[in-house]
Amino acid sequence: MKESAAIISAYDQACVAGTRTVLATVVQVEGSSYRRAGARMLVDELGNMTGAISGGCLEGDALRKALLSLVQNRNKLVTYDTNDEDDAQLGAQLGCNGVIQVLFEPVDPLNANNPVELLRLTTSIQRPVVLVCLFSLMIAQDQPGTLAVIEEGGQHLGNRNVGAWESLITAEAQEALLRKQSQFIRFQEDQHSLHAFLQVVEPPLALVLVGAGNDTRVLSGMAALLGWDIFIVDGRPSHANPARFEPACQVMVAKPEELLAKVPAHDRTAFVLMTHNYPYDLAVLKLLLAKPGLPYVGLLGPKKKFYRMMEELATDGIRPTEAQLAGIYGPVGLELGAESPAEIALSILAEIQAVFAGAHAVHLRDRQAPIHHQEEVRFKTVIL
Amino acid sequence: MNPIRRIYLDHNATTPVDPRVLEAMLPYFQGHFGNPNSLNHVFGWEAAEAVDLARDQVSRLVGAASSEVFFCSGATEAISLLLPGLFEGNHSPRNHLITCVTEHSAVLDSCRYLEKKGVEVTRLPVSPNGQLNLNQLADSITDRTLLICLMHANNETGVIHPLTDIALIAREKGVLFMTDATQSVGKIPLHLAASGVDFAVWSAHKLYGPKGAGAFFVRKGLVKKLQPRIFGGGQEKALRPGTLNVPGIVGLGKACEICLEEMPTESKRLATMRDLLESEVKLEEDIQVNGQGSLRLPHTTNIAFQGIDGIKLIRALPGLAVSQGAACSSATVTPSHVLTSLGLSTDKALSSLRIGLGRFTTESDLHEAVSQIRSAVKQLRQSPS
């Protein structure tokens, strides 16, 4: 389950039990850290923690800060300097070199737009949106917190009064959506400044597995851990049987020509054709090639199968463009020396992760640059 | 009989607590009295939060990271932790310290202590207007020099040393640099990170905070060079263990916050008043400002009234609180070591008064002070005893 889903579920349980909660959000990171901005953790008044804001070194203090913010019923910003090699408690432990700003917000269940409800909104809406979080590095100042969800076109969903900066924040949110990149803005007016963390939240990746054989059972089980939306389609009712798969998977029986009406097919969808039925796979591929903008179509099987498909498509007059070919991954998967179904599933999932993250699948030790994208942490100052 | 109106003009000795500082401190004596190291309850968490905020406020004023700021009882304690701590924690052959003759006795006495322990100490002279010769400083550095310890602003004359230039010299030669910033923090801009200082110390009570609280700065990564001098529960990264003085720390934090905000206007106002005071008093004959011509603190002046015994002058000014030098040494009749270091004769040093204006000094206070000083000077000169 994804972190946000786990947090929302823990929050719902807490509400039923009448337990009060605090949402902790990493709103800014300078330098390196285990979790990036946008990492969240829900703390309840009994001290239960769901999610994580660090590799574990900050959680102890964060728990106390969360409980204090609950007692004071006040949002709170706390700075953790894991850069501090002189500090035996924080620094050196993890070998991180970062200054991490964590915002703590007591969650008011009576407020329909409280931070967890806004988080829920970002996960339920099937479009990219921006989650707006405002804070001040002057720790004694009021911390506005998680206030709004903005979608393309600038419409505010669940607005909790963004305040005087609304039009500027809306404009910056549009830019964030355009770049598909979270933005960090510092608004400066005279001596006062306010920081905005505009987090781009994209809908979860949709994984469409065409073919419901036993290898799909393994693959879908592993994919479920990643929190992706999983669709499994097969022409055989005996195979496309929900009882064979994780409850999170949507399993359906369909002929190739019915497929696209039943599953998503957009720029956040990965298809893997693995029916072990050549004509069925080919028929689906033909349909997908008619659909522009699909970033990932994986073909299970040897290179020979891929060439044969291309030849047969050509005899039908279908010649994939360069861009289309770039999105076809045949044979599917990374070279990991995979043999068993689980190993093959790992290689496929690793490839999909890399493609959608725009990453080169190489050893991290061979990279000179930091693990996390630097451009993600672009700070921009807007002087008013 | 009307009580004498007393005007306090000794702000280099100490300052009154700003009412806003007092207000911030009060809750931490009773309601929020917790120990910041109590991890198990709200009392402790509240106190820890107050200390975190104070550390943030202090670090902003001095241009440091909050992780580089440590709380203690004041500058003297900090100097006593840092100077011996650095030499005792040093395992290299470096065994030489460079300081200056005009330092505060907290530094000079620590140096004498270290000298007894075998540390070689060089005490640089100053020019007649209180300035260091930076070439001489550079020339004094040897491959055995561990530390340069020079104050930011002098407590008697207000003369300011060029921190950044000194730090540059120290860096070039691989020598550490510590500064006593007691008189300058909150009075003039200070950016420790940018200036290249490695250690700095200061007290809350010089900047309208409470007595018994202070802080020191240790540049990131240098804590391990210091041998702890006191032992206990590990507070302040074990450099200054002991339960934190939370009300004092809160007061220091608030005082720093106010200074950061008001320093630009306050220093301008005080410099204007100080300059006026000097020019008005100099209308009398044979008056000389010690350290004049140097960059000085905006609120401080040190004036030699030639031919007049300073103590008699002070007695003739019952409505003014001014002093003959550092508060620590004013019980003795020996002349100020700072003024004699400037080349003043014993008589001239003893004829000098330090006047320190402050946040609550009004223009009417100033005019009253000028008129009292001038008439006292006239009177003493007319009837020499």
How are the SSEs placed, and which strands pair?
The complex is a heterodimer of chains A (384) and B (385).
Chain A: H1 3-17, E1 21-31, E2 40-44, E3 49-51, H2 59-72, E4 76-81, E5 98-107, H3 115-124, E6 129-135, E7 145-151, E8 156-157, H4 166-179, E9 183-189, E10 192-201, E11 206-210, H5 214-225, E12 229-234, E13 250-253, H6 259-262, E14 269-273, H7 278-289, E15 296-299, H8 303-315, H9 322-326, E16 328-329, H10 341-357, E17 379-383
Parallel strand pairs in A: 9-17, 11-12, 11-14, 12-13, 14-15, 15-16
Antiparallel strand pairs in A: 1-2, 1-5, 2-3, 4-5, 6-7, 6-10, 7-8, 9-10
Helix pairs in contact in A: 1-3, 5-10
Chain B: E1 7-8, H1 19-25, H2 42-62, E2 69-72, H3 75-88, E3 96-100, H4 105-116, E4 120-124, H5 134-140, E5 145-149, H6 163-172, E6 176-180, H7 192-195, E7 199-203, E8 214-218, H8 246-281, E9 287-289, E10 300-305, H9 310-315, E11 320-321, H10 337-341, H11 346-350, E12 352-356, H12 363-382
Parallel strand pairs in B: 1-11, 3-4, 3-5, 5-6, 6-7
Antiparallel strand pairs in B: 2-8, 7-8, 9-10, 10-12
Helix pairs in contact in B: 1-8, 2-8, 3-4, 8-12
